[in-house]
Structure formats: C-alpha cells, structure tokens
Amino acid sequence: MAGGSSNLKERRAGTAAAGDGWVAAYKGPPDSRVESSRGVPPFGAAETWTDAGISSEARPWHPAVAFVGTVLGGCLLVAALPFLLPLAFVLTVCEGLRDLLRLDAKDAAVYSKVEGSNEDVTLVLPGTCAYVFWQLGMMQYLCERFDTRKLKFAGVSSGAIAALLAVALEEAAVKAPERPAEAVRARAHEIFQLVEQRSAHLVSWPLGFMARLGTVLDGLADEILPPNLDYAALSQRLRVGVRRLAYSTGLPALVPDMVAEFNSRDDLESAVLASSSVWLVTRLFPCRYVPSKAAFCNDGVNPFSLYCFMDYLCQMRGGAGACMATRTAPVHTHSGGLDRIYAIWNCTVMRVLLPSHGKHVWVTPTIGGQLDVRFCLRVSGWFIAEQWRQGYAHARDLDSQGHWASLRRHARKSAAAA
Prior knowledge:
Shape: globular
Radius of gyration: 21 Å
Strand content: 5-15%
Helix content: 40-55%
Distance between the termini: 25 Å
Order of helices and strands: HHHEHEHHHHEEHEEHHHEH
Number of helices: 13
Structural class: alpha/beta
Largest sheet: 7 strands, mixed
C-alpha cells in the first residue's frame, strides 16, 4: 500500500510545482493511507478503496493566469465595495429589525417545536461555497460504505447539492442490491464526468463562473435526479435551508426558512437551486421562485448579510451545555480559525433547519480545519477534481476516527453467496 498522507501531500506538491500553488494540501492524520483505485474491484473491495477513483484531464492554471486572476479578483472586490457595503448594511439592518420585532415569530414557533425522535440520524450538510466539490467527494465515500436510505438530510447551499447527489447514489445502490458499493462508485464517476464537462467552459479562466454557474446547476439537477422518486417518502427525510424574501408590515428581509415538502420533481429542483443561488456568484438575479413556499428565495447562507454574526453571539449565550450554538455550530465542525466563519454563516438557517432530537452527523470540510477560506472562489477544472479527491480522503480518515459510527454499513454478501 502506498505510504500515508505524506504521499498524498507529495503528489499535491508536485502538481503545485507544475503550476498551481494555491490549493492547500490535504492535512490528513499521520497514519492515513492512500492508494489509487482504477476500475471496479470485486465485491468486498469497497473497504480497501482509499481513493475516489475519478479520472480527470484538467490541468492547473499557469502561475501567470493564477496571479492575474488574483489581481483581477482583488480589483473587482475593491470596485464593488461601494455597492456591497451599503447592501450588507441594508440586509443586516432589515434582518435584525425583523428578528428584534419578532415579525416572523409565528414561523419561529413552528420551527422550535420538538421534532423527530432520539433514534433519528441526520446528515448535516452546511454551505461551504466552492468547497461543494469536497462535500461531493465525502458523499461518494459515505454512499459507497453506508446504507443512507434511513438517514435524514439537512442541506444548505452547497450542502443541498450534496444531498441531491446522495439521492442519486441511493438510487444506484437500490438497483444493485448485490453490489451496492460498486454501483454507487460507478454512478459517482458518471456524475463527476458530467460535472466536469458541464463546467469546463466556466472554469478555464479565473472568475469565469461568476453569475453563470446557475445555468450549469440547472442542467445538472435535471440530469442527476432519478426519474421515479418517491417524493412523499423524501419529504420525511430531506430538509433544504433557504432564505425567504419576507415583506410583511413593509419591512422586507431575507429570513431563514426551510423547504421540507416535495410533491414533484419541480418542487425538489426549485428548492435545491434556490438554496444554492448566491447572488452574483451563481446568477445575476438575486432570488428564485419556490412554488412550495409561494415566495422568492435565495441562498440559505446569505453571505451578504452580517446579522449572522450577531445571531451567533446570541446563540452562544447560556454556557456550553445550554447554548443553541452547540446544535447549530458545534465546535468540532471547525478549527477555531478563519473557517469558523462558515459555521457562523450557517448558524442562522441551521436554527430553523435542524431537528431538535436525534443525532446530527456533520459532513463538511471544516472538520479538522481542511477548508481554506482564501480559496473559496478560486475555481479551476483542476480544483474541482482535487477537491473531490480530497473530500473522499477526508471522509475515509474520519471513518477511521469513528466520525461515522452512527451510520449503518451496507450489508456484506456472505462467502457462500459470493
């Protein structure tokens, strides 16, 4: 077997030296093991897979391209500040006033009810911006090893997309009950190729995806979703976090909400696409209409509002054993550094999204400090493939540490049957 995480780091460093030095090496535990997987091994070999096994022809950007992209991005940010700062102020004040005046108290009362049971296990998939590909790699690993059909999902933004992938991979496992891991792996590879092909023209140059990624997500959602889903059953398992445009009493604001009722394919697609609709990043239009809510909604994180920082401080009150943040932004999901900002961005929508009972298992690159906020918008074709691979390796290492102990593994085929 190839040697440990140092081997993976050497491969990262070698590729970086070839031209792309801004993707951080995966920081796995010192005893992790990495080796490539090619093709589809015999049944039972899933436990030996330590690599996502995806194949990509994408190459890193040339250093000059990466440098120009960094300068261009910095210049655009500075130029946009006269617009972004007043926007952030208005969104923050409006959201804060609605919360202070309890204009959405009726909705909050509904969400605060005790829900679920202590036996429920929910995979929590927070928004992580461009690190969505890391989450997709983690989800490939989970669906290969574990039977997720009894699990519940709470997805926001990129996490909602990861939940959509889980639904597609579950369908592959159901169709191949004798070899679920192999079926999941094959379908994950197909979806990766689809993602790579669809996004190739957007990530060939820095910031090329800005305001254009939404059209790619539209097509992917339509192609990835299985044709004959049981939407009544899915409604009992999946919650999608969004920000709903509320304007009662003449005070408009994007308030946290969730979609948990899906009567059709359109209902599911509209919820996931609204949850991942970051204004100016994925689309030019700030909101997307969600029929099941009869309202315009957008990204569940809403990074343009700073009210989440105040909400996080409020949630932290009451001591470590009593504060709401232990449920919405637990300390084990981030390193305590800059990546804490992702927990803060998500905490407000998580307050209405997460069930109050049961086990919450987080699926995010911020566990162990794997996410580097500096690279949240520096997306290349090589970045997509590397993040997918590193996400898979991260999930594997978390498995070795018992992070997924609440999940049930796929039933093994008996030796006699084999």
